[in-house]
Amino acid sequence: MAENIALRPALPADAPALAALFRLSVETLGVEDYSEAQVEAWSALAEDEAEFAKKLAGALTIVATLGGAIAGFAALKGADALYMLYVHPHFARRGVASALCDAMEKLAAARQAKKLTVDASDGAEGFFARRGYAPQKRNMTFVGDEVLGNTTMTKDLPAMTGPTQ
Ligand SMILES: CC(C)(COP(=O)(O)OP(=O)(O)OC[C@H]1O[C@@H](n2cnc3c(N)ncnc32)[C@H](O)[C@@H]1OP(=O)(O)O)[C@@H](O)C(=O)NCCC(=O)NCCS
């Protein structure tokens, strides 16, 4: 069970911390499934903090904290795309991504999405499969000069019902 994980909306002032977390997460947790060059290209996506801040602001971004420290974040694009999900390595395997994903699924359902879609990294595929996401297709995506594989996965969401009278 998750230990005192709190969730809150991301603020513009969080952008530098979230960019640093993104890079650390990729550089630490991504190494098992991708080459050094691939990890470097992936991590570089958060190199330009202003650009990264724009990406966060263009989505519904939620921050998870544990003991007051930022432990991870997730972003929902539109109604049905889980755009980012990154956990600080120090807080890995403590239920942070699960708490963030629970919230993303509820927010997507509240936006009337019938399913939630994610392009899951190879390291995250097991996490999503355990939550009921089914693989749809394999992608090879250019990130800088590198090609990284990921898998589009989807999960059907329960219909959101309004309050009854
Ligand atoms: C994938 C990631 C988000 C998981 O975050 P997390 O907070 O450690 O995940 P949780 O603690 O909520 O994991 C819940 C369960 O999912 C499964 N799981 C989590 N990480 C897993 C992994 N790397 N491999 C297989 N199963 C995994 C486990 O069953 C785990 O339960 P357990 O710890 O009791 O065995 C994190 O490793 C990460 O940030 N990775 C790097 C960035 C990335 O790939 N993001 C996804 C982009 S789509």
Automatic annotation (TrEMBL):
Q: What is this protein called?
A: Acetyltransferase, GNAT family
Against InterPro entries, the record matches this protein to: Acyl_CoA_acyltransferase (IPR016181), GNAT_dom (IPR000182), N-acetyltrans/Recomb-assoc (IPR052564)
Organism, as annotated: Rhodoblastus acidophilus (Rhodopseudomonas acidophila)
Keywords assigned by UniProt? Membrane, Transferase, Transmembrane, Transmembrane helix
Taken from the record, one Pfam family name reads Acetyltransf_10
| Molecular function (Gene Ontology), one example | acyltransferase activity, transferring groups other than amino-acyl groups
Q: Where are the transmembrane segments?
A: 56-76
- Which PANTHER family does the UniProt entry name for this protein? ACETYLTRANSFERASE, ACETYLTRANSFERASE (GNAT) FAMILY PROTEIN
The record's listing under CDD domains reads: NAT_SF
Q: Where would I find the N-acetyltransferase domain in this sequence? A: 5-158
